[in-house]
Structure formats: structure tokens, C-alpha cells
Amino acid sequence: MQKAIISVLGKDRPGIIAAVTKVLFEQDCNIENVSQTILQNEFSGIFIVSMPGNLAFDSMCAILEKGTAGFDLHFHIKPMESDERSGPAVETEPFVITTKGPDRKGLVAKITSVMARHGINVTNLQAVFKGGNDPGANIMIYEVDIPIHLDQASLRRELNETARDLNLDISIQHKDIFRAINRI
Amino acid sequence: MLSNQEILSVLEMLQNENLDLRTITLGISLLDCASDDIRRFRGAVYDRITTTAENLVEICDRIGEKYGIPVVNKRISVSPMAVAGAPFAPDQLVSAASTLDMAAKSVGVDFIGGFSALVEKGLATGDRALIEAIPAALTETERVCASVNVASTRAGINMDAVLLMGRKIKEAAELTADKDGLACAKLCVFANIPQDVPFMAGAYLGIGEADAVINVGVSGPGVVKKAIDRALAADPQMNLRQLSDLIKRTAYKVTRVGELIGREVAKAMGIDFGVVDLSLAPTPNVGDSVGEIFQSLGLLSIGVPGTTVALAMLNDAVKKGGAFASSNVGGLSGAFIPVSEDLNISEAARAGHLSLEKLEAITSVCSVGLDMVAIPGDTSAETLAAIIADEMAIGVINKKTTATRIIPVPGKKAGDQAFFGGLLGQAYIVPVNNGKGDNRFIRRGGLIPSPIHSLTN
Q1: For residue A176, which residues of chain B lie inside 8 Å, CB to CB?
Q2: B68 vs A: CB within 8 A
Q3: Which residues 81-110 of A are in CB contact (within 8 Å) with B?
Q4: Does A12 touch chain B (CB under 8 A)?
Q5: For residue A49, which phi and psi values (nearest 5 degrees)?
Q6: Contact B85, B133 (CB under 8 A)
Q7: Residue among A139, A172, A177 whose CB faces B10 most closely
Q8: In this structure, how many other beta carbons lie within 10 angstroms of the beta carbon of residue B399?
């Protein structure tokens, strides 16, 4: 057996998952993890599968395209080398960083460059830019892991300064507050 | 993974609805500071407070920042001074109040409560001295708050103490006449005082409590009001069952904030966590008012017919939500109706919608009592005592906490305005109807026995 990661892109419509997994089943693949999301009208899915050792990645891609013909899906497939994350494990705490403010180019790039400089990993990002100056219509929500030993004061200062330059309201809050308020 | 809606609704509460942690109150026992030497006692009290509370403000600010929720007030409550300082004379107790004031200032807290006595069944020597000291103590200090428990459901109503308090309130008002009787704004008279209130001016650390404890007061009238407004905008036909459920769920969310942050502060200080007191405590800011909730519910103003039932529903829903959200709910937990501290309630008093009589009536279903009510300066001590006694009776008979914080504003009459400043706000002075004439009942003194606990009707 060999382990592979398959990404799927295409216009969203009913039946995509059924079609893809039918092919995987026929090829004797075992699904280990799936995540899918829909942005506007576009479907995107990531499958981690273990597949028979004699099946070549190129031919697997062709089989998937053929098996899902009519859905107009794009596949990319690559081997998974190991389960280990790159770099040494760092102890972190989960925070949520939220920004609101008028839309302009480069918002995500500028905010994430500060995060990257401090070694902060983004675990989930949701951003909506409907354009215009309505702060409520232009929102970024980053779920991040902040290393425990990081100098939080300087991180906050830098994020606040960057946000001010971009005319954004920014909040940096430990994730537990959202769990505490919303979940029983 | 959190949903966007969960994150955005919390931000909305923080940014536009005045959600905050109203107070973290560190209770400190002073009982082991006991001495018959006032200098040694004052030294021990000062050291005890400044050592225990040394990092309180810094820790509260740091943890508040971590969660993005401001801890607006950091406060201290101490053991009742009438017990801790029982051997001392009134003037010595006034000096002990100065020590509390200095200690509070040194650690950066805005109020310190516990200049208190518990006299529901009788007055001991230390109690008499403390009550004697209250007017001067509250005049000469800035941050000290006093409270006296004169009644309880188990003991009855100590009418000697009630009359004494009527007189002391008058004295305190006269001593601070240049500030509209400000000293009285820091003095509560209680029935059934809880041992763990974090809110001022009634906070003190009960005799049954540990050496030190963290109690948390959460507020959020603005959050409740906006939740009602939003729900009614989406469905104008919502009935009261649905609305009370909505208030309950909102109170749950607000209380969770106090639970989370309070526990973390307690842990960081190495002190036991006490209770979350979920009280809708207004401030004199637009959008942070209990009075506005009545209007959102559909009443013309707080004070009009329908107010008592609306407050009963609100108070009950708040308690239910709070009780579910925290494993330790205590203190007062309910809705406050402090007249001067709530712009909307103050305006209702000015417009004549809210009278002293209606205020008294609604205290039978809310969490405190006649709170921050300014009355004419020429109200006699006996009339004042009679108003207090009426309020105590409501608490004693209904097995609940009630209190009075009444300010007879020197030199001012009904309709005038009194200014107390800051969180204490400003108020229109409400008339005391039928307050003139002899009141022999109040002068008789003695203990009104505790009520029967059966035959309820």
C-alpha cells in the first residue's frame, strides 16, 4: 500500500463526493481523511487515501477524471511521505485574530506576514471581502496557534500597528472565550 | 472549529453592546489582624491588604487582554470591620478606615468594601462603635464603602439599628453637604446580606469565608437589550415566553465570561475562586442601562404599570441563565435598579414615571432595593428609618436580599438634581410623599420577630 493526497477542484453541484468516492472504492483505495469546503460556488476537497502499491499516480489521476466525467473536476495527486510535521513541535495556545475594515488589496498578505515573522501558524482562515467601506462586509477571521513562549506584548503591538496602517479594527483573543460563551 | 457566527456575535457583544467584566473583587480576611492596639492593627491590616492584593490589578488586566474582555473594576472586600476591629472606639475606627483607603490606593483599586457591621439581632460594642464611625469614615475617605445588615429572615428586623442608621445617614449627608451627600452613596443598609457580593457598596467578606477569595461580578444590560431588539426586529410577534427564554440564554453567555476569567485570575493569584454574581448592573452610559430593557420589552418607561411584572420576568430569566452557566453563582445575581447610575432610570424619575413608592414595589421582585435614590435633604431621620424599615420588611418576609442606598441631599428639594460623579452618576431628587408628621412607630425600637415559615400566602 502507498499513501497519497488527492485534491479536487470544480464547480459545486450535487454528486461530486459520490462520484469521486465511487472511483476510489473501485480502485481499492481506503479513505483516511476527507475535508471539503465550498467557496462561493466552487467546490474544493482534499482526500488522504491509502491505495494499492501497483497503482501509478498518473494513471490514478486519469482514472478519476474519466470516472467523474461530466463534473468537469480537476485532480491533483501526490504521495504522502510521512505523518510527521515539518520542524520541531512547539507548545502553542489557540487564539482567534479577527479584523474588520474597508477592503483593499494586500490585507491578508500584510497581516499574515506579521504572523509568519513571529512563527504563528494559521490553522483556519475565513475571509470575506464584499468590497466597499462597510467594515461588517470585509472580515478576516484567523484561528492561529501562538507559541507559548512568544513575547505576546510585542506581537500585539505589531499587529495593532499593522492594522492601524491598514485602517482595520483588530481583535486578538484566546479561543476559550468563544468556546465558553457559545458552547455548553 | 468555531463558526464565523460564534466569533462575530462575541465581537458584537464586546464592541457595540458594552459586554465587560464589571468587577473582580478580592475578598481578604482581616480577622487574624486582631489587636487591641490600634497602631498595630492598622499596620497589620495595611500589610495584609497590600501583600495579598499586590498583583491583583496587573493580573486582571493581563488576563482581560488575553480574552479581549476588559475587567473594568478591580476591588477589595474585607472582613466586617465591626468584628475585626471590635475593641476600638469610633475615632479609632475612623483611622482604620483611612488605613483601608490608603491600602486600596496603594494597590490601585477604586473601592474597598467591608466597613461593615452585622446587627440583625442586636448591637455589640464593636457594632455600635462602627456605626458611630460611619459618617466621618465615609467623609474622610475616598474609596471605602460601608454596609450594615439590620435585618434577616432568621432573626427579624432590628428596629433600634434601623433608627440608628436613619440618623447616621442624615449625619453622613450633612458632613458631605458640599458634594450632595456623597458619603451616603457609599453606604448600604441590608436585609439578608450575602457574604460574597462582589459589587459595591455592599461588598464585604463574610465571616464564613476563607482567608482570601476571588468573586466576580458580570454585568451586561446592554447585551440583553440588544439581544431583545435584534430578536424583535427579526420577529415582531415574539411573545413573553420566547423573550424570557432569549434573556435566559443571553444571561448564560454573559455569565460564562465571568466564570472563565474569574477562575483564571483566581488561579494566577493562587486564591480560591468564590462566586460569579450575574447582575445587570448599569452605568451612566447610553446602551448600558437596565431601564432601556423595559422600553425594548414594550413599556413606555420603567415605572409605568407593567414594570413589576416585567422586572420579575427579567430577574428570573437572568438568574436561570446565570445558574446554568456557572458552578458557583452567588452574591446578588439579578437586575439592579440604581436610580442615579442609570441614565434611563434617572430620566424616568425626572419625568414622574418612577416614584419612590413604585421603586419600593419593584424591589420585591428584583435583586437589590432602593439603590442610589436621592431624596429631599429635609427628610427627617425618622422618615428615612421608616423607608429603610419598609424595604427591610420586603426582604425579610420574602426571604431575599434587599438594601437601601438613599441619599438625603442637603439643601435640595424634589425635582432638583444631585451630582455624585463618575460611576455613581447623577439623579433627580424624588419626592417622599406623606413623609411629614410624627412617626412614633419607628421610635419604639426593639426587634420585630422573624417571620413564620409556614402558612405562606
Answers
A1: 67, 260
A2: yes
A3: 96, 98, 100
A4: no
A5: -130, 155
A6: no
A7: A177
A8: 14
- Per DSSP (E only), the strands in chain A are 2-11, 30-39, 42-51, 74-79, 92-100, 121-129, 138-147, 169-174
Predicted confidence (pLDDT) per residue in B218-253, tens digit: 888 989 999 999 999 999 999 999 999 999 999 999
Of the pLDDT bands very low, low, confident and very high (cuts 50, 70, 90), residue A85 is low
Compare CB distances from A141 to B4, B69, B257 and report the shortest one's residue: B4
What confidence tier does A86 reach under pLDDT thresholds 50, 70, 90?
low
Nearest CA in chain A to B69: A173
- The three cell numbers of residue A69 are 466525467
Cβ(B73)–Cβ(B23) below 8 Å: yes
**What are the grid coordinates assigned to B268, written together?**
494566577
Cis before residue B201, ω within 30 degrees of 0? yes
Q: A2-79 in CATH: which number? A: 3.30.70.260
The segment(s) of chain A belonging to CATH 3.30.70.260 are 2-79, 92-182
Q: Which domains does chain B have, with CATH numbers?
A: 23-191 (3.20.70.20), 217-433 (3.20.70.20)
Chain B residues lying within 8 Å of A182, measured CB to CB: 2, 6, 9-10, 253
The gap between the terminal CA atoms of chain A, to the nearest Å, is 42
Residues of A in contact with B69 (CB under 8 A): 173, 177
- The reply to whether residue A98 touches residue B253, judged by beta carbons under 8 angstroms, is no
Res A87: pLDDT: 64
3-state SS class at A27: coil
For domain A92-182, the CATH class is alpha beta
CB within 8 Å: B253 and A182: yes
Given a contact cutoff of 8 angstroms between Cβ atoms, the answer to whether B390 and B376 are in contact is: no
Q: Please give the pLDDT value at position A83.
A: 59
CA pair distance B77, B27, nearest whole angstrom: 5
Q: What is the pTM (predicted TM-score) of this model?
A: 0.88
